[in-house]
Task: inverse folding
């Protein structure tokens, strides 16, 4: 990455010299219509001291606002209310920045910036680089970040990941996971919930971090945990709920997840304690990041800093809206792209975050995502970067430049969610009643196979028959996240209830097991939504982003009620972790070692992982999925097969007979029970 400074890029430009990031130039020009063209000439400031920097006994404040006529710095005694104890005029410096210094560092105080543009003073803002904030995030706080480090923080490290496909992702919202009265957790809905050992339900089942250890997932993926807008931190007893896809301060944690949102250090310290507790348990932490849009338009911290610059616009000057949330950011512009890169770097370094899930990633350009991945891998080679390879609406960003699922091969070290396997296995996400392969709807077989081979080129997969994508978009299985459900849309439990209305709960649980067995044995990285292992539901609410705890909380008594379901998931994860054949590292290996059998029965897929694939101890693993509600028959080669999964049961070291011996099969005609997976090895 390098900067190229040009004399004059746009005729009549105000600023000189004009610094443009060379690699982004082409995309930025293509994305800028006549309304946004002026931003091409804005200077890029590439220093790392935006916001507040402490140098010895001096506090340096720096704000980037190239169009500002004047900038004020307000100092307060408190995080909200009251008058400024001091207001300073900031001084214009290089590359569109404004600076002020205070000596000695006024620790314990709060600050805001205020920008004058077009002859008008805008509202106060903590800026876009506030690393500590007061209640509800309206003012930035001056604290000693070092003092927020838990004991042993310097030695804290997330799990080392040898190959990205070794990761098992568990997507979790802080309140969902701990807030139910029977969670046995004291710090309900808080970062600290994860730091509690030995928590159990009234029925004695493990909850919290012990539950995660028991389940065996390698990484927790936490829903947005930066400071978001919707939950009023001054009124925590109201128990407001929100997923948090309404970013306010990108570089400070959310206050409502802390035990004291009015103390700026507490949320930081408690989030770090959560990370450390998970790391101590060998579990990595992935954070959901939402740089693609902000909660507010004109009143966002971006708009109050440099109005217009950070967003894309339509030709009529209105905000373009690829996020479906009222605006979209402009990663192709120097300062926005840099902001994303520097922000994730900050979370990786200061909070030891092990991975980032990019919301609506295709609103960003591939070049920015490549910079993100390169910067994070330099800090920690085990960092996992993935995202939603789509937008939620049209965008001025050219399709070729978008970090789309279909463009994932242009990105190095970035993975995308496979909506192919998701919709093919359980039925389409937007039609509650629609069924998929695992629930008996024929015609999805080829798309499920696309999922099984992690969307890589495979001689036996006909992409022209794919429901969603028509070509092998992944060049490596490391680029694919397989899943059947997440926080969005119906939970798997609710989807099965709505699409299998006549079925019993036991039948739906069988379908859920089959669906997840497909995900967890597929090449690529598996991802699951918290609570599916206990068959949690959300009472049929598909968009529960602000639904109360009564909808979103996981009732942990389900772990007792659905103990068989939990054990199946546990064994399924153990199977995947014990067998590298499910985690091949290249498209070539998959093409060579994964062979589909010719079957002509609808809702039936049979394949083998051959020749000790990826160094597996098992020479051949046979995997058969029957999504029909009737038994199917397959012809197995003669041999000494050991049964790992059959008829809705799974044991990663082999199913046992009543006398304790391993279940075996000799091959030949073999029955595969309805809605179940048959897994064998020899
Ligand atoms: Ca907040």
Result:
């Amino acid at each position: 990455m390098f900067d190229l400074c040009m004399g004059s890029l746009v005729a009549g430009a105000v600023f000189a010299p004009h610094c443009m990031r060379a690699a982004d130039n082409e995309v930025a020009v293509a994305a800028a219509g006549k309304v946004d063209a002026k931003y091409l000439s804005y200077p890029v400031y590439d220093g790392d001291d935006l916001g507040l920097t402490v140098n010895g006994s001096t506090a340096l404040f720096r704000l980037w606002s190239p169009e500002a006529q004047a900038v004020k710095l307000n100092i307060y005694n408190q995080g909200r209310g009251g008058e400024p104890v001091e207001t300073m005029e900031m001084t214009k410096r290089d590359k569109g920045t404004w600076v002020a210094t205070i000596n000695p560092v006024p620790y314990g105080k709060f600050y805001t910036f205020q920008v004058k543009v077009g002859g008008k003073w805008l509202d106060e803002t903590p800026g876009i680089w506030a690393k500590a904030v007061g209640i509800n995030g309206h003012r930035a706080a001056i604290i000693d970040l070092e003092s927020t480090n838990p004991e042993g923080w310097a030695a804290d490290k997330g799990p080392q990941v040898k190959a990205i496909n070794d990761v098992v992702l568990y997507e979790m919202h802080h309140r969902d996971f701990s807030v139910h009265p029977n969670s046995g957790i004291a710090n309900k809905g808080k970062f600290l919930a994860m730091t509690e050992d030995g928590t159990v339900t009234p029925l004695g089942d493990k909850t919290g971090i012990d539950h995660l250890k028991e389940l065996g997932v390698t990484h927790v993926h936490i829903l947005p945990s930066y400071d978001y807008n919707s939950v009023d931190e001054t009124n925590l007893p109201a128990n407001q709920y929100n997923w948090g896809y309404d970013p306010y301060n990108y570089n400070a944690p959310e206050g409502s997840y802390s035990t004291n949102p009015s103390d700026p250090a507490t949320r930081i310290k408690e989030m770090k304690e959560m990370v450390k507790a998970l790391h101590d348990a060998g579990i990595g932490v992935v954070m959901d990041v939402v740089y693609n849009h902000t909660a507010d338009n004109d009143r966002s911290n971006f708009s109050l800093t440099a109005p217009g610059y950070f967003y894309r616009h339509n030709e009529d000057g209105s905000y373009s809206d690829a996020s479906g949330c009222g605006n979209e950011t402009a990663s192709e512009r120097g300062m926005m792209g840099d902001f994303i890169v520097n922000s994730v770097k900050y979370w990786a370094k200061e909070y030891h975050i092990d991975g980032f899930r990019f919301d609506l990633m295709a609103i960003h350009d591939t070049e920015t995502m490549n910079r993100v991945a390169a910067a994070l891998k330099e800090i920690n080679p085990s960092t996992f970067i993935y995202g939603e390879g789509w937008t939620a609406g049209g965008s001025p960003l050219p399709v070729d430049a978008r970090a789309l699922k279909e463009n994932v091969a242009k990105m190095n070290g970035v993975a995308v969610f496979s909506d192919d396997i998701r919709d093919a296995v359980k039925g389409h996400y937007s039609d509650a009643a629609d069924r998929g392969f695992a629930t008996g709807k024929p015609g999805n077989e080829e798309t499920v196979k696309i999922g099984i081979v992690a969307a890589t080129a495979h001689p036996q997969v006909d992409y022209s028959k794919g429901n969603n994508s028509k070509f092998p978009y992944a060049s490596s299985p490391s680029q694919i996240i397989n899943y059947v459900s997440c926080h969005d849309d119906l939970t798997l439990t609710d989807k099965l209830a709505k699409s299998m209305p006549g079925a019993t709960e036991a039948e739906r649980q069988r379908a859920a097991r089959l669906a997840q067995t497909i995900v967890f044995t597929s090449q690529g990285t598996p991802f699951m939504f918290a609570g599916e292992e206990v068959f949690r539901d959300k009472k049929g609410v598909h968009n529960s982003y602000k639904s109360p705890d009564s909808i979103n909380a996981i009732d942990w008594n389900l772990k007792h009620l659905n103990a068989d379901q939990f054990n199946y998931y546990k064994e399924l994860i153990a199977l995947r972790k014990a067998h590298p054949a499910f985690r091949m590292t290249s498209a070539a290996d998959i093409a060579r070692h994964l062979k589909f059998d010719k079957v002509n029965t609808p809702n039936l897929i049979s394949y083998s992982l051959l020749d000790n694939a990826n160094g597996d101890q098992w020479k051949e693993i046979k995997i058969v999925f029957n999504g029909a509600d009737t038994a199917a028959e397959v012809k197995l080669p003669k041999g000494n097969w050991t049964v790992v999964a059959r008829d809705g049961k799974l044991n990663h070291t082999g199913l046992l007979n009543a006398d304790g011996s391993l279940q075996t099969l000799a091959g030949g005609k073999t029955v595969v029970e309805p809605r179940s997976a048959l897994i064998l090895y020899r």
